[in-house]
Design goal:
Blueprint (H helix, E strand, L loop, with lengths): L2 H38 L19 H6 L4 H26 L5 H13 L3 H11 L1 H18 L6 H24 L2 H30 L7 H57 L2
Helix pairs in contact: 1-3, 3-8, 3-9, 4-5, 4-9, 5-6, 6-7, 6-9, 7-9, 8-9
């Protein structure tokens, strides 16, 4: 496949991924809103069967419902976090290809030492994954440069290195895509929770300011809203930070493997080319 076709396919893939991203957020919000209204806001969770009243003792669904309208927003954020964490996990797992990467790289090195380029390309086709795609592009260029009598050795090395850089540039964005969503959630989740906390505290103090006896129900509702939103925000932020660091570490390790394999191939080419 030519680079132009690859770039065209990548452009189509970008459009589909943008649709997936937008659709996932919308679906997550709809699901969260339905759970908030129909499950948490179910009258059976409240005294007298009235969602405007106090939740039944020990009924956590009713208690969470009292967190107010910020709760479904935080639920949406957490659900989006779950969706894209699973999506990144699947994508990075597929990028590894079949089998262990270290064994695959060693096998390629053995093929190169024996000058079996076609066998090395076949191994890449069987392995698949991002590393295999980069190595396959490099091996095909390796084979073409071996037979090229018009270029000097230094020019061939530069051309081979450039091929690796271009192939890597096409693969790495697929690995790090959507990580920005996780890093954004790490920030906005806790801020949204704090916003809900402020609203709850405003309601609680408003209940205390009532002339005569304070409105106990409004006071309890305000405190519940504050604490529930704080909890949701902290949980979302904590999980987002954990997932972001986990995936970033895996991608960094994978990038190192690609660079190591590419360097090995260039060194092999330099050692066998005059």
């Amino acid at each position: 496949m030519s680079k132009k076709n690859k770039q065209g396919g990548q452009g189509l893939g970008d459009s589909l991924r943008s649709i997936f991203t937008s659709g996932a957020i919308i679906v997550a919000f709809i699901i969260s809103l339905l759970i908030f209204k129909l499950v948490m806001g179910n009258p059976i969770n409240f005294e007298g069967g009235n969602p405007a009243g106090a939740p039944l003792p020990g009924n956590y669904l009713g208690i969470v419902y009292k967190g107010g309208w910020v709760v479904p927003v935080l639920m949406t954020i957490n659900l989006v976090l779950l969706i894209f964490s699973v999506e990144r996990l699947i994508t990075i797992s597929k990028a590894k290809g079949r089998g262990r990467i270290n064994v695959f790289v060693k096998k390629l090195q053995n093929f190169l030492d024996a000058n079996q380029i076609d066998d090395a390309v076949d191994a890449c086709d069987k392995q698949r994954g991002s590393l295999a795609n980069v190595m396959r592009a490099g091996l095909l260029r390796y084979k073409a440069l071996k037979d090229d009598q018009t270029l000097e050795k230094d020019q061939k090395l530069v051309a081979l290195q450039k091929e690796f850089e271009e192939a890597t540039a096409l693969e790495l964005p697929l690995l790090s895509r959507n990580l920005v969503i996780l890093s954004t959630i790490a920030t906005i989740s806790v801020l949204t929770g704090l916003f809900g906390t402020v609203l709850g505290m405003i309601r609680a103090f408003a209940a205390l300011a009532t002339a005569g006896a304070p409105d106990a129900l409004a006071l309890a509702t305000g405190i519940s809203e504050a604490l529930i939103n704080t909890a949701f925000g902290i949980i979302g932020s904590l999980l987002a930070i954990i997932f972001y660091n986990y995936f970033s570490t895996r991608i960094d390790n994978f990038t190192y493997k690609i660079d190591e394999a590419g360097f090995s191939l260039v060194q092999s080419f330099a050692a066998t080319t005059k």
